[in-house]
Amino acid sequence: MKNTFVPNPKEAESIHIIREVAAQFEKPVLMFSGGKDSITLVRLAQKAFYPAKIPFPLLHVDTGHNFPETIEFRDKLVEELGLELIVANVQDSIDQGKVQEERGRYSSRNSLQTTTLLDAIEEHKFDACIGGARRDEEKARAKERVFSVRDDFGQWDEKNQRPELFDMLNGKIHHGQNVRAFPISNWTELDVWEYIKTENIKIPSIYFAHKRETFVRDGMIWTASEHVYREEHEQVEERMVRFRTVGDMTCTAAVLSEAETLEEVVDEIRASTISERGARIDDKRSEAAMENRKKVGYF
Amino acid sequence: MSTENRKLINIATAGSVDDGKSTLIGRLLYDTKSLTTDKLEAIERNSKQKGFDYLDFSLATDGLVAEREQGITIDVAHIYFNTEKTNYIIADTPGHVEYTRNMVTGASTSAAAIILIDARKGVIEQTYRHFFINDLLRVGHVIVAVNKMDLVDYDQQVYEDIKKDFEGLIEKSNYSEDQVRFIPVSALHGDNIAGGSENMDWYQGPSLLDYLEGLEIDESEDNSAARFPVQYVVRPKTDAHHDFRGFAGKLYGGKLAVGDEVTVLPSFTSSKVESINFFDQEFDEAIPGSSVTITLEDEVNVSRGDMLVKSNELPKSEKQLSATICQVNSKPLRTGAKYILQHGVNQVLAKVDSIEGLVHTDFSGTEGTDQLKLNDIGKVNFRLSKPIHFDPYQESKSNGSFILIDEGSFDTTSVGFIQ
User: Fold this and answer.
1) Structure pTM?
2) Interface membership of B65 toward A (CB under 8 Å)
């Protein structure tokens, strides 16, 4: 019997996009947070160029408030695959006086990342940044093109985007501009989890149920950590939780869960009636929180 | 198989303002339990704030501040939902001013289109335009959803009259009757969306979702020829793969198998397929839609933008071409203008030789013009700096279409369908 390759349409589309980035740009980079979407991107990039290595480095914008499990995972992955990792530290931007640490109850370094990211793009002269954003995540992201042109201030002009027709991608830009490229735009959260399961991709342990010191505020489960502002009356308790989305500790809430295996995680996502970004504290700031961040250079 | 392969259906919606597109999409999401509690709560909250006594599903799809401010859809939104059998991507295109450009964008990747008609208004000028664009782009399946049946007392005669009117359009088009499906619906109340309708027992056909679930989407583009544009040359130069030289790309049209005689374009050198690789596995053959890496038996010169085809299925190779153009940028296309023409992953320079005429989207023919403005559709002749290797659009969507890029702004200004 003939051994016929039958493609997964979403995987094939993503690989096509990643190859277009590598071919059309001088200095691409893959934005890597250590979360499931960027881990999926790494696997797709591996497949796009196999048996050659991934022909661009990874860039992690590290807020300094990440979960230690994520950082440990990141370093191991980079070593195993022989990849180049560039870390841009938000702490450096703070030390240089470029951004100011937020204060108070909802203080987070999440929005400070934009400055650090834009500086890294300028310093390394990246002309394309591959990101793991998905259109199903958030309504402003649903409007983003696969190749999204940003000016030299990193700004997104949502009203003046290039139409994308068929699968032809126009990556022509002027010096100083850059493109944010989103290969998994058309994936849903469930697509990502099913892919991780069938491909048996390793992910950080915090995605599985574990015991963690937490407290509850505004109906969300926050991680108790020196980096997370907490008032005395907000009582810390050990809970069985996992994370559905992983940003840094100050903007990612945990969910109560018993799911310990990938099968159980996928079943839980399938049955869930809450969207993924329902656990993102950064999106709750306002109706247009994501759109406003994107306009000034967030990805 | 590399992963859980659900069928994927891309759908574009088309309709005028206020004919209930967002409500229809919202209803589909709601009935397939694809709207999460937090999103539904947000819709309920915002609908109440606006003083509506119904759920305003457009709040789920209008993602930009400017859209919510004005209550209109400005740009294409992509909406996703899965059933047990199928992954759906719906391109929700605006019904407003810039309709043609956005509809073409949405329809370019779609295998099916839903054209909404307000039962109270029947077939209107917009309907012509929607149907014409689907016809021009050869979207395989059209579903005519006659909406707001609740507002005409679920009257069968109203539906039959609209159906009859529309059948007049089908006669003027390239569609056959079996490619167009009529369904009477009420998106607001959910009649014939994901389930049946007690109010319309005279309708015996499938609901919208049942019909979509049963659609056979033919990826092979009607038995068109195999086309493999090379995106990237893979050269690992590692100890384990020192001599590996693979050509990475996506296969369109027909199958490609190990041992097939192939011709490399534009050099017209021949070789045979030595191996078909995907990640760490080798395969005997690949079907259309595969993003694989191919090696050839001979050391032939192949670079990005080249195309591998079966030697007995050569496309046309020409420096002149005629195409139907849809202008998607506010800078008009004029005779004598130069563009970067991107055909798949290949780019050449192109000059507009002549504009034959402006095409009317009501199927009434063409008229002479010296320019194509935003949203215009016209027939244009081009001269190219180098030949491209194409098929007519009606034989191959991927190899018969191109985009034009402005040399100054680098904007994508036009999309072309080769005749």
Assistant:
1) 0.92
2) yes
Nearest in space to B322 (alpha carbons), one of B367, B354, B365, B348: B354
User: CA-based diameter of chain A, in Å?
Assistant: 68
Kindly provide the residue ranges of all beta strands, DSSP E only, lying in A18-100, ordered along the sequence: 28-31, 58-62, 85-89
CA dihedral A259, A221, A204, A132 (to 10 degrees): 110
CB contact under 8 A, A159 and B66: yes
Contact predicate B40/A278, CB 8 Å: no
**Per-residue confidence (pLDDT) for residue A101, from 0 to 100:** 85
| pLDDT tens per residue, range A28-67 | 999 999 999 999 999 999 999 999 999 999 999 998 888 8
Which chain A residues are within 8 Å of B104, Cβ to Cβ? Answer: 163, 165
What's the ipTM? Answer: 0.92
Structure token pair of residue B344: 């798949």
CB contact, 8 Å: B96 with chain A?
no
Of all residues in chain B, the one with the smallest CA distance to A292 is B65
Closest CA to B331 of B352, B353, B347: B352
Q: Shortest Cα distance from B368 to chain A (angstroms)?
A: 27
User: Coil, helix or strand for B50?
Assistant: coil
Question: Given A3, A136, A159, which is nearest B80 (Cβ)?
Answer: A136
The better pLDDT of the pair B56, B400 is held by B400
Q: What is the pLDDT of residues B171-188, one digit of tens each?
A: 999 999 999 999 999 998
Q: Could you tell me the domains of chain B?
A: 3-213 (3.40.50.300), 227-310 (2.40.30.10), 316-418 (2.40.30.10)
Cβ(A108)–Cβ(A225) under 8 Å?
A: no
d(CA A169, CA A275): 30
Q: Check residue A190 and report its DSSP letter.
A: H
- Comparing alpha-carbon positions, the chain A residue that sits nearest to B290 is A7
Chain A residues with beta carbon closer than 8 angstroms to that of B412: 162-165, 170
Asked if B101 and A274 come within 8 Å (Cβ–Cβ), the reply is no
Q: Report the residue from A49, A165, A190 with minimal CB separation from B403.
A: A165
Picking from A51, A159, A165, the nearest residue to B105 by CB comes out as: A165
Q: How far apart are CA B65 and CA A292, in angstroms?
A: 9
Angle at A36 between CA A30 and CA A42, to 5 degrees: 35
Provide, as residue numbers in chain A, all residues whose Cβ is less than 8 Å from the Cβ of B78.
135-136, 142, 185-186
Q: Does B61 touch chain A (CB under 8 A)?
A: yes
Nearest to B136 by CA among B164, B175, B97, B91: B175
Instruction: Please give the pLDDT value at position B75.
Output: 64
The residue among A158, A164, A185 whose CA lies nearest residue A288 is A158
